[in-house]
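=== Structure Prediction Worksheet ===
Name of assembly: unnamed complex
Input type: mixed (protein and possibly other molecules)
Chain count: three
Listed entries:
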Amino acid sequence: MFTFRHYCVDLHHAPQQPKQDATDIRFADVIIHGNAAFTQVPHIALLGVPQHIGVERNGGRGGAGAAPEAIRAWLNRLTISNGTDSISSDIRIADYGNINTNGKTLEEIHEAQQEAVTQLLREGAFVLVLGGGHDIAYPNGAALGSLGKTVGIINFDAHLDVRPFNEHGRHSGSPFRQLIEDPAVHIPGGCFAEFGIQSFSAAAAHMQYVLENGHHITMMHHIHANGFTESLSNTWNAISQAENVYCSFDIDGVSSAYAPGASAPSADGFTPRNMFDAALFIGAQKQTKLVDIVEVNPFYDLDARTSKLAATIAAHCIWARAQALCM
Amino acid sequence: MFTFRHYCVDLHHAPQQPKQDATDIRFADVIIHGNAAFTQVPHIALLGVPQHIGVERNGGRGGAGAAPEAIRAWLNRLTISNGTDSISSDIRIADYGNINTNGKTLEEIHEAQQEAVTQLLREGAFVLVLGGGHDIAYPNGAALGSLGKTVGIINFDAHLDVRPFNEHGRHSGSPFRQLIEDPAVHIPGGCFAEFGIQSFSAAAAHMQYVLENGHHITMMHHIHANGFTESLSNTWNAISQAENVYCSFDIDGVSSAYAPGASAPSADGFTPRNMFDAALFIGAQKQTKLVDIVEVNPFYDLDARTSKLAATIAAHCIWARAQALCM
Amino acid sequence: MFTFRHYCVDLHHAPQQPKQDATDIRFADVIIHGNAAFTQVPHIALLGVPQHIGVERNGGRGGAGAAPEAIRAWLNRLTISNGTDSISSDIRIADYGNINTNGKTLEEIHEAQQEAVTQLLREGAFVLVLGGGHDIAYPNGAALGSLGKTVGIINFDAHLDVRPFNEHGRHSGSPFRQLIEDPAVHIPGGCFAEFGIQSFSAAAAHMQYVLENGHHITMMHHIHANGFTESLSNTWNAISQAENVYCSFDIDGVSSAYAPGASAPSADGFTPRNMFDAALFIGAQKQTKLVDIVEVNPFYDLDARTSKLAATIAAHCIWARAQALCM
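=== Predicted Assembly ===
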């Protein structure tokens, strides 16, 4: 049924360390892989985009292409329970492997990603995409936009990522400008939110671009001052005026103490707890159709600290969506 | 007088960097070592258990065996004052070196540890044990239980450590199940507390095991929500219904940003300040007879960050007990 | 006009990565270098002191001598805007390179530093000095004291740095004792403040020395308990009784999770946000004439985390002063 299969490279190896212990169920025990993933619509779909072409086009350091495998390795080892509540066995979670990036241009990869994500969304799956650089936000947002409903976006990030194209074309710093300016994506005024933007990391002209398009920016220092929960609530109230919501977690929005393995780390930023709270809240909202986690860079990671963080964000998000589906 | 001497390997080298400066007294200047330690009952006794056999039996990565020496090296360099208040020279602090682990099985090491700790406790010493893996919690708790009084336990940890034995027998994930099920250790209902347990790191069946035995679990996300001080106070009120208290600090309960050198680090967790506050509070309570610090793994540490943290937790604990003894 | 030129080694290379993009202005685009810096009085002057002689005299580990270049490299890459507010093009920011340390003793370097800083202060510039070890606080404070007005000092630090000279003479642990005891520097009672001092890192006798001289100490655990903003406000109210204020940021006052590249890192400490808030507040006060950032140690840094933090503290400070000058 999933015709996007030809875009994907399945992960042929078995998931790491399935426990097969009924008293200690891990994500590796419940995620469906390979041929089985294509037989039935999942409730929750995973997809990887293992490339950092857009990061390098933006002058950044490579490595994010290794993130999907690094994150999956840790996700597989996590238990499926948040306290005493486990993910129901009624919830079908399928991993569709990675978009085939072999010998492709960034534009070709994005096209394949957009088609694959669109199909999963059309089938009704909640889609979790593991980047890759932040350039993957464009095909993700465009996929959601192609459903014909209005789109709200929240971007957890130290940076705005609304730069113009450079001499290489699109890149990891340009996706949200692409989405704002794409006539096929209907983002109502105020329904795009930048969340966690850091001082001295965003150009004033780019700040103005976002604001002049009628959208929201919440600076990191305002989040520190006003509290994470209240700031997120205010932002959600704005973007949830749209029919469907897409949430992007750029790991460099987290302080580099917690997320050293990022393409462009910053001293200040979110805590892991902030990200888990956000994933629980956003994953549980039925309007949320699509989440991604981007810019994890295993080449610069320390003892897999950042991959484990990203995996735990994914776990919270999947768990929250699973709980919401069972209510 | 201390017949456990034959269990121990003294640290033959002099303590590192004694300052011998009357205006700047360090722990190295006041801790009694070697033969002198055995001549008189100390107020506070240090003991190391340098092995990671239980960690490896549990599928973890070795290294915790190097922790006692790494922690002592930094403890020796700290000043003995918390602000303007120094540890009184009336307080006798003795380091009994390490339990001899040379060529021993984990079971033999635990037996020697239990006997040595029991004797120190019977003599009235406050005992601080430096692990080693978390398996050392079993002989520690059993030693306290052997005094014939009821036992309260607080475990600062990301994980429950109530797994059944595996094919190797006891291991670093099993100590609290051993204690709960040991008829020689009387832990009244509600007097064992897991504190700081993390989502997706504890199996639902193990959570239920603790709760069905009538004990307490405080999840890390509840501590974030309710505040550390109030959460700890509630937990203390429960466990202090027992006559004697044992407190175990698993360093992996601290966020990996602050404690990268752990056998099984996690992104979320306690801050150093949380641990210092806990050590001050718990060290000052006369019911507390025994504290350990476990799972520091110098093989994976960064610039001794975790060993220094563990040493500073130890310093707060020793200082608080010394102050309480002088009141 | 600047006769201190012979003390300085200009940075001959061009600033790193000037963007020359009018929509994305970086510090590299606005900081004046080389001959041009000497033609006119700047509003804000940068100066480096690339040595760690005082650190090594104090038994510490070398590396801080590499900090001025490491910090500048990251400062140059930051945008000049805090949110939508950019540094005005009316503000002249000049980098005077480094004090020439080649073949000099620590005493000779300090003398040159003091003369250079004094001249910049006399010309009315706001001076930001990049260390180097904390020994540079003595010539900095002495320069401000030589203006004939009373001096207030706030030292953000885990340590007191009021040790006596040792067998090598002055060192990185002695500068504030030197300033307190220098009859040419008039620090009124209560106008020297130690802020963020950590338990078990300061000798009781040194604590008493500061207090008996009538000055202030705010322990890190009191800042955790009372809040950073209120603690800083109380301290500012005390030291701002003096006419001119000098602020020293020792990077080891920041938790080692955020600032691993320090000469003497500690587990507990300030967050990056604390330092940014402090830099914004203190940089904006007209009484503040002089700021330094010391003890960054690139030899022990992780992926430039600490140099980037120091650069971002500098950016907040420069921006705040620029805003204040435009009001």
